[in-house]
């Protein structure tokens, strides 16, 4: 009876909300200022972007080309080459072109550095210097540099270059000539070669997107989506189609709060030092109290020995109680203050120790993320069982999935705080960072513990924990994410 | 082999033979087989360089896509030069790679290689050991290059000191070329070369 009563009141409540919304709609214009919360200010990871298909991107690029062509009154292929050589920055092209059109065309390799000599073609036949064959003058073509070659040789030249993956960078066949062949010139010579034409168009498109700072190919396997954003920063991009999450600026796995260069340095370091790191990858540890061997089979670092029921931390093997509240000591690396006076060997040992400290935590959270994926499967099975035995409805249990997703998101950020801390200079800022990192870590472990053990529908407690963990995460990012 | 490639090589072959450089014995090409896929080139060491007086033989392989792709060229004659491997004879030269243009010919390649012998580019090295010596001890490099020219390319400059050191290693049972490489790599320091050879 009590439950149904509760449901009723919830219904009422939601009805009220709906009314309220209508009311808001009615006064939308006046109220929007007050109600509207600018996500740019509240969410440090806010990122405005679009997932575009290849056709949409092609349209976008063509529009840019057309606008420039109209503005400067130049041909479309010319506009395209100019844009491509200036990272698709129309304003820059217009500025340069209006300042000095001749120099702009030379530096974009559309025109030769020195104007070609005027050759008068009096003969009706010429020898092509590439195939050394005599042809009628009609069969000869040239770029702005006036280097004449026969039609067949141009075709062959383009075929060979395209088969080597070269497209926008194909140049004239003459010695030391830097003039590039524009798209229309290449396509004109590949009229009956459908396959090679398609290849060429595919490669040029790839080149255009790669040189365009506002576009980024989704790195997901076999995914053709292109992310488009005016905000050229190391932001979190999510592909609608293949669900890959990546950094918009470098295209690698998303890595906040660490920046693109640092994460690259860290990953290279980890790959190089994999031998020393191997020993860490042992998946088992002994219980610090009863010394029974324990395998970690969940993501949570709060361990409970299945034999003696001792609660301890997987990272430092210390008593969990001392980790509980204010201070989570475990994530902070304590540097030896006398290190400067130690021998070279001791310093090297200390450096390795420092690296391993951060690496261990980085690896551990990465493993926890994977283990928590399995937990999710178990969760699903358990919910099924609960629902079958009449403990709540499927909908009642849905919040657990939301919690698991949030946990993954928080742990992901936590994982990427370790490379950030490793490369940080010691000082008050690092202390603040490690304090916040410790706070985040503690809340994440609490959340993980609660999700794994959610037996009853004690939703409030868990939702509270979710809110705390996410707040800790955004606070850390707000203070330290600098993109 | 594609028609254009054979046609071009035939024509270029004649061009080299008729060129003024051949008259001055600076460059030479010979056919190795009759279908124009492989040729033997020869260039004279340019004057006022450590290579002066030497004759350097080149292996030239013509790809099917020639002249749209560059010919594959390497030194057969052993040579001490920052941009040429002292082990394989492989050449690091832009026109044999991405700066190749279809309008270039065997003659331009041979002349460019000759120019490379006269002006090394140690910042774009093929042989790191040679390049380091070139940058750190230019006189030592010149001495070594001259010695190699004498030993392998028929150059006139004999260095008795080098020959003596090589002979001492050969007497210890080391093969002559191996001894020369070791000594050249260690600035003709006999002790360090010996150490390296027997370690």
Automatic annotation (TrEMBL), chain A:
Q: Could you tell me which Gene3D superfamilies the record lists for this protein?
A: 1.20.120.1750, Zinc/RING finger domain, C3HC4 (zinc finger)
* Any one GO cellular component localisation term in the record: nucleus
Gene Ontology MF annotations: ubiquitin protein ligase activity; zinc ion binding
Its catalytic activity? [E2 ubiquitin-conjugating enzyme]-S-ubiquitinyl-L-cysteine + [acceptor protein]-L-lysine = [E2 ubiquitin-conjugating enzyme]-L-cysteine + [acceptor protein]-N(6)-ubiquitinyl-L-lysine
Q: Where is this region: Disordered?
A: 1-25
User: Which BP terms in the Gene Ontology apply to this protein?
Assistant: protein ubiquitination
In terms of one coarse class, where is the protein primarily found?
nucleus
SMART domains, alphabetized: IBR
Coiled coil residues, start to end: 437-479
Enzyme class label: transferase
Q: Does the keyword Membrane apply?
A: no
* Catalytic activity, EC: 2.3.2.31
Q: Does the keyword Protein biosynthesis apply?
A: no
Q: What family is this? A: Belongs to the RBR family. Ariadne subfamily.
Q: What is this protein called?
A: RBR-type E3 ubiquitin transferase
From TrEMBL, chain B:
Q: Which residues form the UBA domain?
A: 157-199
Superkingdom of source: Eukaryota
The record's InterPro entries line, in alphabetical order, gives:
UBA, UBA-like_sf, UBC, UBCD4_UBA, UBQ-conjugating_AS, UBQ-conjugating_enzyme/RWD
What is the designated name of this protein? E2 ubiquitin-conjugating enzyme
What residues does the UBC core domain cover? Answer: 4-154
Q: Which family does it belong to?
A: Belongs to the ubiquitin-conjugating enzyme family.
Q: Which SUPFAM superfamilies would you find in this protein's record?
A: UBA-like (SSF46934), UBC-like (SSF54495)
Instruction: Kindly report, in one word, the top-level EC class recorded for this enzyme.
Output: transferase
Q: Which GO terms describe its molecular function?
A: ATP binding; ubiquitin conjugating enzyme activity
Enzyme Commission number(s) from the entry: 2.3.2.23
């Amino acid at each position: 009876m009590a439950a149904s009563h509760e449901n009723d009141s919830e219904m009422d409540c939601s009805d009220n909300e709906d009314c309220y919304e209508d009311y808001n709609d009615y006064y939308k214009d006046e109220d929007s200022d007050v109600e509207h919360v600018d996500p740019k200010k509240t969410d440090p990871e806010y990122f405005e972007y679009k997932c575009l298909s290849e056709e949409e991107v092609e349209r976008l690029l063509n529009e840019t080309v057309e606008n420039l062509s109209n503005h400067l009154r130049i041909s479309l292929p010319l506009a395209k080459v100019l844009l491509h050589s200036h990272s698709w920055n129309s304003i820059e092209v217009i500025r340069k072109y209006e300042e000095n059109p001749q120099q702009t065309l030379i530096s974009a390799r559309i025109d030769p550095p020195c104007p070609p000599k005027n050759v008068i073609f009096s003969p009706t036949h010429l020898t092509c210097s590439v195939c050394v064959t005599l042809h009628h003058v009609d069969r000869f073509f040239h770029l702005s540099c006036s280097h004449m070659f026969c039609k067949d040789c141009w075709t062959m030249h383009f075929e060979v270059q395209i088969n080597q993956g070269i497209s926008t960078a194909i140049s004239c066949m003459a010695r030391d000539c830097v003039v590039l062949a524009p798209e229309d010139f290449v396509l004109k010579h590949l009229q009956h070669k459908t396959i090679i034409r398609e290849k060429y168009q595919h490669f040029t498109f790839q080149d255009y997107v790669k040189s365009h700072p506002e576009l980024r190919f989704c790195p997901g396997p076999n995914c053709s989506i292109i992310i488009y954003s005016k905000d050229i920063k190391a932001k979190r991009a999510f592909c609608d189609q293949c669900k890959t999450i990546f950094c918009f600026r470098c295209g690698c796995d998303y890595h906040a709060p660490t920046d693109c260069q640092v994460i690259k340095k860290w990953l290279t370091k980890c790959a190089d030092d994999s031998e020393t790191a191997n020993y860490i990858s042992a998946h088992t540890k002994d219980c610090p109290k009863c010394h029974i061997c324990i395998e970690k089979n969940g993501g949570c670092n709060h361990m409970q020995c299945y034999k003696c029921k001792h609660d301890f931390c997987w990272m430092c093997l210390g008593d969990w109680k001392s980790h509980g509240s204010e201070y989570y000591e475990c994530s902070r690396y304590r540097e030896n203050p006398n290190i400067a006076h130690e021998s070279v060997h001791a310093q090297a040992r200390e450096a390795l120790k420092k690296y391993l400290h951060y690496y261990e935590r980085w690896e551990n959270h990465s493993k926890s993320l994977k283990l928590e994926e399995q937990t999710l499967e178990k969760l699903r099975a358990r919910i099924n069982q609960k629902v079958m035995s009449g403990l709540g409805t499927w909908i009642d249990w849905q919040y657990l999935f939301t919690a698991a997703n949030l946990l993954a998101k928080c742990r992901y950020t936590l994982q990427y705080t370790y490379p950030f801390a490793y490369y940080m200079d010691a000082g008050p800022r690092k202390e603040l960072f490690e304090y916040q990192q410790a706070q985040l870590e503690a809340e994440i472990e609490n959340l993980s513990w609660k999700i794994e053990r959610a037996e009853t529908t004690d939703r409030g407690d868990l939702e509270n924990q979710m809110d705390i963990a996410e707040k800790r995460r955004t606070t850390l990012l707000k203070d330290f994410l600098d993109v | 082999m594609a028609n254009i490639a054979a046609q071009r090589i035939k024509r270029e072959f004649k061009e080299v033979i008729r060129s003024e450089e051949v008259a001055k014995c600076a460059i030479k090409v010979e056919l190795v087989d009759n279908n124009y896929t492989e040729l033997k080139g020869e260039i004279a060491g340019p004057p006022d360089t450590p290579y002066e007086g030497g004759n350097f033989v080149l292996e030239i392989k013509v790809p099917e896509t020639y002249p749209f792709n560059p010919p594959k060229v390497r030194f057969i004659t052993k040579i001490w030069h920052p941009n040429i491997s002292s082990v394989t004879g492989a050449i690091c030269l832009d026109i044999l790679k991405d700066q190749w243009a279809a309008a270039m010919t065997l003659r331009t390649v041979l002349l460019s290689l000759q120019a490379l012998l006269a002006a090394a580019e140690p910042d774009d090295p093929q042989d790191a050991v040679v390049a380091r010596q070139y940058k750190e001890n230019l006189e030592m490099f010149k001495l070594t290059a001259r010695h190699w020219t004498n030993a392998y390319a028929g150059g006139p400059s004999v260095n008795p000191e080098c020959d003596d050191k090589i002979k001492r290693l050969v007497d210890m049972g080391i093969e002559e070329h191996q001894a020369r490489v070791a000594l050249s790599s260690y600035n003709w320091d006999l002790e360090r070369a010996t150490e390296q050879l027997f370690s």
